[in-house]
Design a protein that fits this description.
Creatine Amidinohydrolase, 4-stranded antiparallel sheet, alpha+beta
Length: about 260
């Protein structure tokens, strides 16, 4: 069942979404050459605590991993797609890209967002990967409108990514969000005919998160049971926003 939020609930989600945005903007500044992914984690922990919020990811149990996640961030570097774990030994270097994904729970409602940050100067191919992934998200956001269907959002990501010579990850998808971090519906970055294709209605909130590989789409999970990497070793980019369906069009809750 897809839960539709009231105007008051959307305002609460807006507050959690803006906190996530503020955290990510600060982490973008910290993600420089010589910083470790644990440096990002430490900064995020403090910001979440100072805001009186709770981390969305830490303590989250995933059956496939067989354990609870131990961090407030996912920090995925280069060929890591999602769920990379902060590590003091993982030091960022020039030419890297790092996906920073985080979420919070504030006043009972979740916010969730991700950015991918270049470390110093990156290659032209990598710049294009980031640009196309961001564009795919923006195009998908524009489709989060009352009267459209879920597949309108999913196909928009897939078509833009493929038209630019990249591939979408199929193993990991976006989701509904609200009082739970993951709610119905699932939001793939491609059209999955096995899924239902609900019509979008005011009050629905979707976390749309293109995960785009420079090479082939296949992913594998490392022995840590969490970190998903590209099978062919190509770089991967990830951007995410939470978007509410309103009578007046899409409302991105996770940015000003």
């Amino acid at each position: 069942m897809i839960v539709r939020k009231t105007a008051a609930e959307l305002e609460k989600m807006r507050r959690s979404g803006l906190l996530v945005w503020q955290i990510l903007q600060k982490l973008r500044e910290i993600a420089v050459e010589g910083a470790s992914t644990m440096d990002l984690e430490v900064a995020a922990v403090k910001m979440i605590e100072d805001a009186g919020a709770k981390p969305a990811f830490k303590g989250y149990y995933v059956p496939a991993a067989g354990e609870q996640y131990r961090f407030v961030l996912c920090t995925s570097v280069n060929d890591e797609i999602v769920h990379g774990m902060p590590n003091p030994k993982r030091v960022l270097k020039k030419g890297d890209i790092v996906s920073i994904d985080t979420g919070v729970k504030l006043d009972g409602y979740y916010g969730d967002s991700a950015i991918t940050v270049p470390v110093g100067e990156v290659s032209e191919d990598t710049k294009r990967l980031l640009e196309v992934t961001r564009e795919a998200l923006e195009k998908a956001i524009d489709r989060v409108r009352a009267g459209n269907r879920l597949f309108d959002v999913c196909s928009t990501v897939e078509q833009h990514v493929k038209a630019n010579g990249f591939s979408v990850v199929r193993e990991y998808v976006g989701h509904g969000i609200g009082t739970q971090l993951h709610e119905e519906p699932q939001v793939p970055n491609y059209v999955d005919r096995k899924n239902e294709n609900p019509r979008l209605k005011p009050g629905m909130v979707l976390a749309v998160e293109p995960m785009v590989n420079a090479g082939r789409p296949e992913a594998v999970v490392l022995k840590d049971h969490w970190t998903a990497v590209t099978k062919d070793g190509s770089y991967s980019a990830h951007f995410e926003h939470c978007i509410a369906v309103t009578e007046n069009g899409p409302w991105v809750l996770t940015r000003p």
